[in-house]
Amino acid sequence: MKTITTHFINGKFVESKGKEILDLINPSNKKIIGQVTLGNEEDARDAIRAAKEAFKAYAKSTLAERIHYLQQLHDAIAARADEHIAIRAKEYGGVYLHSQASVSGAAKVFLNMKKSLSEVPFHKKLGQAEVMLKPVGVAGLITPWNAAIFMICNKVAPALAAGCTVVIKPSELSALQTQLLLECFDAAGLPPGIINAVNGRGDVVGNELTTHPDIAKVSFTGSTAVGKSVMRNAAETVKRVTLELGGKSAHILLDDADLEKAIPFALTAGFMNNGQACIAGTRVLVPEHRLADVKAAFRKAVPNLKVGNPTDEDTVVGPLVNEKQYNRVQSYIRKGIEEGAEILIGGEGHPEGLEAGYFVKPTIFVNVTNDMKIAREEIFGPVLAVITYKNEEEAIRIANDSVYGLQGWISTTDPERGKEVADRIEAGIVMVNQLYDLYNDAGVPAGGYKQSGIGREFGVYGIEEYLQTQAIFEK
Ligand code: NAD
């Protein structure tokens, strides 16, 4: 059992001033595997002070220095990739394939930022003015538990590239994963105070970051409900805000879709990361006349997905993160039944033989209408809602009939048609027939429309979130 009693402040692991202790539980067997001491407001203020002090020098660092630090951070994380994957399975239930991509993505984001940094127009002559891009100041980074270290790295990298110093408030449910990452940050050998991190609750440490006057920018990834309160808090001191929030993305199977490809794609899009993915395609829109074939294809494919031990390399769906999430998903399955949807596969309870952990049955509902709760609300588990449509217009209308707009998914044998439909989907990213590798170095922006968020991450777009312009007129 590992005990974490420290935060990472000003280049050192310092004992927590907060005293509350939280048990860390392995979701595959509900055993306690560690404990973390949660920080209080004072810990948060210490970290903000360190970041503010470090900002004075770091804001003036050269691009060469930043590039050097980004490389060091990449190397330090990559060197311990296997440990990151192992602890992600143990603390979170992350299955091997997803963890491998997520961990290598977390390291790679630092390399990608080196490339993107060279594309940022830091100086520009406009008319009589010189326009410069300058770091906004100390950034507060608040992250969720579902891709813990990737989410942290995907904020730290652009913030540091821009010249900001940071205070991280990771999810309290990911303390073991965070600790290993902080050891990597420490090993990277950056000057003290550039990266700081405080474990703690959202309403304590998170709240301090969103209200403290010395935090210039908050980048938050998490639920839409908390995101709204972050924005309200940040308004008081007019902080810059990036919000990466929830989703209820539609996967449109166009009437020409090849089900041999579209059904496995729908399962990948829907059940990735044990169904705990903001971008998951959880509403599967199917042409009415192809419903029988779609049902048969799901019935055939789902039993072949291995649910179980996340460390087995062939496991597709592992456990949910904790008891709260397990109960939440069960309650949505009950709501679906109560609202009149029909369970095609799965349902309430544990899969047979997996009663010891927070495992749920991959579940597919049919006879769903878009006004049902299971079609409107983010469930965050391996539960798909199949909704039928009469024609393409109706499919697009249903896809866009959501408060969310994070992602769209389309299956078709005609890529041109897929692109035309994608153009009409209200979402930050639309994937036509493919699971695009977000971790590549092209710097493609990701982020939400509507209540899925504000701002963008990745590439130059991601760095710009941490910059502000200054125009100097000189005679
Ligand atoms: P959450 O909103 O409960 O918590 C996210 C973070 O915010 C945690 O660190 C939490 O401690 C902190 N927090 C909670 N209350 C706070 C407050 N009052 N002030 C400041 N911080 C506070 O989300 P979660 O349950 O950890 O993660 C799941 C959610 O994250 C899902 O809704 C998912 O869609 C979303 N998500 C979005 C993206 C994206 O890129 N759009 C990516 C991953 C997850």
Question: What does this 3D model show about the protein?
Answer:
The chain has two domains: 2-245 and 452-473, Aldehyde Dehydrogenase, Chain A, domain 1 (3-Layer(aba) Sandwich); 250-432, Aldehyde Dehydrogenase, Chain A, domain 2. The protein has 15 helices and 23 strands. The chain has helices at residues 41-58, 63-78, 81-92, 96-117, 148-162, 175-187, 202-211, 224-235, 259-271, 291-301, 323-338, 373-376, 392-400, 415-422, 459-464; strands spanning 2-4, 6-9, 12-15, 21-26, 31-37, 123-126, 129-135, 138-142, 165-169, 195-197, 217-221, 240-244, 249-253, 281-287, 342-345, 363-366, 383-389, 404-405, 407-411, 429-432, 449-450, 453-454, 467-473. The strands form six sheets. A seven-stranded mixed β-sheet has the order 15-16-17-14-13-19-20, with helices on both faces. Strands 10-9-8-11-12-22 form a six-stranded mixed β-sheet, with helices on both faces. Strand 8, helix 5 (148-162) and strand 9 form a beta-alpha-beta unit. Helix 3 (81-92) runs antiparallel to helix 6, helix 4 (96-117) packs parallel to helix 5 (148-162) and helix 9 packs across helix 10. The longest helix is centred in the N-terminal third of the chain and has 22 residues, at 96-117. The radius of gyration is 22 Å and the shape is globular. The model has no long low-confidence stretch (mean pLDDT 98).
